[in-house]
Design a protein that fits this description.
By secondary structure, the protein is α/β, with parallel strands linked by helices. The chain has 21 helices and 14 strands. Strand 11 and strand 12 form a beta hairpin. Helix 3 packs parallel to helix 5 and helix 5 runs antiparallel to helix 6. The longest helix is centred in the N-terminal third of the chain and has 26 residues.
Amino acid sequence: MADAELTEIQKKATQYKDEGNDLFTKANYARAAIAYSMAIDECERASETHPQMHVFYCNRAFCHIKMENYGSAISDAQQSVELKTDFAKAYYRRGVAHMALARYAPAYKDFYKLCQLAPSDRVARERMQEAKKLMNSEKFLKAIEMESSKPASESVNIEEIEMPSGYDGPIYEGVAKLREDSAYAAQYLKDVLEYQKGQQNIPKRHVYQLVMDVIALLKTCSTVQHVDVPDEEHFNVCGDVHGQYYDLLNIFAINGNPSESNPYLFNGDFVDRGSFSVECIVALFVARLAYPNHVHLARGNHETKNMNKLYGFEGEVTAKYDQPLYELFCEAFCLLPLAHVLKEKVFVVHGGLFSKDGVALEDLSKVDRVREPPDEGLMVEMLWSDPGPTPGRTASKRGVGVAFGPDVTADFLKTNKLEMVVRSHEMKEEGYEVEHGGKLVTIFSAPNYCDQMGNKGALMKFSGKDMANPKYTAFEAVPHPQVRPMQYANPMLMMGMMKEGGNFLYWLRLSASLQRCAPLSEWCGGSSFSSMCAASPPTGQAGVRPALEVGALHRATYKAAPQQGDPGGG
């Protein structure tokens, strides 16, 4: 290849990279990833590697971290390391992605290498020490679990828990009273919702008893729970709530409180990220107990210890109550069904479908759900998998589960004589998305996710007479008390930002100093890349899905001197 042509290719790749940086600073992470992909594609046309190829991969890894595509982030960071073995930021970002997946041992190795490359960097040492601490804690907890299989509920003595003096809030009179007295059940649920709205904690004694009663109820459930929807009735399905209690209250304000005439299924991820997770789970547990045949709860990937430790629920429970109550919640989470089948027609699961064809409902019913999820298998795929637009299966961008196409959905429905798959697990800008030829729906019920994504939430309502055509209600976020998201999260996820006064959007200020370069006039007939993105996201570029995926922003900023053009300063 001629020197002039090589120079032109390098120039164009650099322009794509600069445009990606600009998009990144505007929080257009998916589109920034496409720009970096185009830079990489330009480089691959040349017989010699672009001198900044490792930066392109590392920048794209950062985009994937922002979009929680941790599997893709690890892959890109690995490519960056292979291109430049002493590139500190690549090790940092790979470590961040491993940490987000609770893979502490490989994260520790990356941060250890980072400390070798930057021995005087305090943040690098902190990350390594935190990873080591979590790795050792995980080993210790596994050893404890092997020594004792006694569930937390067997150690609880409710009578020893005192009621706070002067308490004048709602009184829990027990599950029998809820079942026998419909007026009390409705009023108690209403009172709990209102009491918690004022940022008041339900007494610890009551919460312990509620969770104990939920555990007893869930022990009667199966891994795949079948729910009838009579022809003359309706049935509501909600997706992720993620600790956004005031948006949960808004769902009930819009659509009515749970009741025998207004049944609900909440499809997992009740907790983590939002800082009112305790309020959410208490409210949902009260509803589950009050209406055991009309309120259903499914397990999500965040009803697990690994996620709770990182994303806030464990910290929130211990801050508002105590550690033994958190362990009791974990026992309840392990008993939650993994899937529901509505009227033998609609399969509802938190994550998605499977890495092999021919999976039957009977196979799923045999899954041992009373455990923390293993590393692979049907349980993990039910909690973590995502749909994709292309046929077949590919590795998940998350690094867990599988990405499955419309043919996989069609095969599963045909195998089990079903009509539709409903799942959650991904933020959608309108709160829901219909995919796979109308056979798969994603429902997401946390609007303005993490106070920053600007998305709507949604719920869906099935009619017993026409299960194939649910109705959708989208809604905006509502105000909530000034408690930031991730308030109780492991500081490791904040990547040092808590030192800056706790500002959740601090990373934006870090990226404000990036130089802005000319748009990519060469792309699409003279239009700039960013103007084209503003009109409609491009598709099909290097396998990057242009839609904004689950998008809570993770502070992943390595505080070394920024590389020229590196987004976010790190």
